[in-house]
Amino acid sequence: MGYRVGVDIGGSFTDFALFDENTQSLKTLKVFSRPDEPGAEVLEGVRLVGERYGIKPGDISYFTHGTTVGINTVIQRKGLKLALFTTEHFRDVLEVARLKIPNMYNLLSKRPEPLIPRDRVFGVVGRMKADGSEETALDEASIARAVAGAQAAGAEGIVVSLLHSYRNAGHERAVKAIVERLAPEIPVFLSSETWPIIREYERTITAAIGAYVQPRVAHYLGSLQAALKNAGVTVDPRLTKSNGGVMTAEQGKSECVQMILSGTASGVIGAAYVAEVCGIKHCMSLDIGGTSADVAIIIDGQPQYGVGEQIGEFQIHIPSVSVSSIGEGGGSIAWVDAQGVLKVGPESAGSRPGPACYGRGGTRATITDAFAALGLVGLSEIGYSAVTIDRDKARAVVGALAEKLGRSIEETAEAIIRIAVSGMYSDVSALVSRFGIDPRDFSCLAFGGAGPMMGCFLARELNMRETVVPPTPGVLSALGGLIADIKSDFIKTLYADLAPATGAIIRDEFETLKGKALAWLHVDQGYAGEHRLTYSAEMRYRGQSFEIDTPLDSTAVAAGDTKALAAAFHAEHERVYGHADPTAAVQVISLRLVISGKTTKPEFRRVEAVSEPATPLSHAEAWLDGAYRSIAVFNRNDLKPGQRFAGPAVITQDDCTTIVPPGLTVRVDEYANLRIVSEIAP
């Protein structure tokens, strides 16, 4: 028994959640992130954990880590210089893509430059048919020419993505063997090994992204493993995955594509756990850090999943938690454009220099500076005493913008906040439309360093029923990584009509996937506990272009009961689209099996309500909603379940600041969450 540690590295701060397996208690910590030296913040945190809590590196029994190294590599375009080998005459697969522009409402919108430019794409003679049989044999001379071309272009890696390799990977494996013989110094990545799905572009871009980030991710993970070992941490670190699970760091070195959304998924898992424990049926998680705001939908305590999530300018087609990232965070910079219009983001001050009010050299106004200039932030130290807010510096940088706009400092600061909330409102509205939900039925669960600071303002604009702030909102993403289950997805493309004869094939293919899944969990991950298997299939009516991931009953799968499988698809089609056709022919495109093993979860204890009223720590004058007001200031540690008070108010704590505008009331529930609702709410 020891301490289970979860770490989440953000743009400004790195968060630590430490769960004592003996006492079932939770401790937290924040340190500044080090984008100049990734991994240094983890070691600094391990050192401070020892100083603050007396926890020795050898006491750490479990270590999970969420990282943005992969996604940042794509965004910054600092990945491996790749060549792509395709089937001859299909060299334009990345350029043609899906013939969509990024913004369908902007006629000047352009598709991004491919990660692998056309001059490093080479055709290979040889072709598989859609049924997996060979139409044209591989021509080794064409492969040799492609290798020579890749070498001449200075390629540092080669991605091989051939037609129909999801059905038969023989040609791709043969190409890899030839490349390794001719150019053993160049690593080779196969689309059939990365994620063997139907559709050429989706499989190719997913393989390309995985290969693009692999060296930087592998180097980072190797350095982290060595550093932790040198620091005295004996357990091998695990990584949070895009699908909300965790895997070993060693696996992450070779399967980088599985953890590309590592950091964003952790927060959603943490929020989902809070929602499930507290009985919040419909919830929108709002994770605002220093650089961005990540929004996800949680229903019945379960996050929503999907494929095709955006990684920088590209979609990646692996199962992942559905998260929308918005370019507004606490460190987002406010600026005035050439036309004299105030804008906010997407550029961020990050952790260095950070907002001007942090006193670390920042000279440009950020969202955090706007709140500080109004007197709403800085009423206590934040970041576990790592930061003391300098309001004068905040007013100076906001004042520089105010002069350009001909407005007061207060008006300009409030405008910065409103513009940021407006940008969030626009993107959240798109997410709401995507899932077909009514935000008035949802709670906004705000967390991250800046989530509680801005959560009430966004929830008010969306007419959401309440804003919920958990007890340790600033480190909830770290907690999410700590409690995430060991989990992985396994897929097999089938592409067959759902006829009686297909039942046995489906059963046998699932048995094969089950064998792979059990080996991954118990052998590769070293997990010895009970596991859970979840069956689904991507299905569609014959003639449809796209399919629906349909949950399947394991009993029906084992029995090869195609009638039951068809009924499951009709029901899912009815749920998604509002109609179904039980008489129409159904196709099974692919089979998917998810295996998961439970991890230890901290117990959130219910606490009896108290009768005494909440007492403010102090009062302060601050500008809020267009005027200076007397603001009640509360310390989060002093608040007890059952207490209520009305806004305007500010609640301070080590990891964040919660701001409650006028017209809202705060109730502390039995789990010590802040439940913030309109005064006229029932």
From TrEMBL:
For molecular function, the Gene Ontology terms on record are: 5-oxoprolinase (ATP-hydrolyzing) activity
Q: Where is the Hydantoinase A/oxoprolinase domain?
A: 203-488
The UniProt record lists the Acetophenone carboxylase-like C-terminal domain at 502-672
GO biological process terms, alphabetically, are:
glutathione metabolic process
Q: Where is the Hydantoinase/oxoprolinase N-terminal domain?
A: 4-181
Gene Ontology, cellular component aspect: cytosol
Q: Entry's Pfam families?
A: Hydant_A_C, Hydant_A_N, Hydantoinase_A
Q: What is this protein called?
A: N-methylhydantoinase A
Classification lineage: Bacteria, Pseudomonadati, Pseudomonadota, Alphaproteobacteria, Hyphomicrobiales
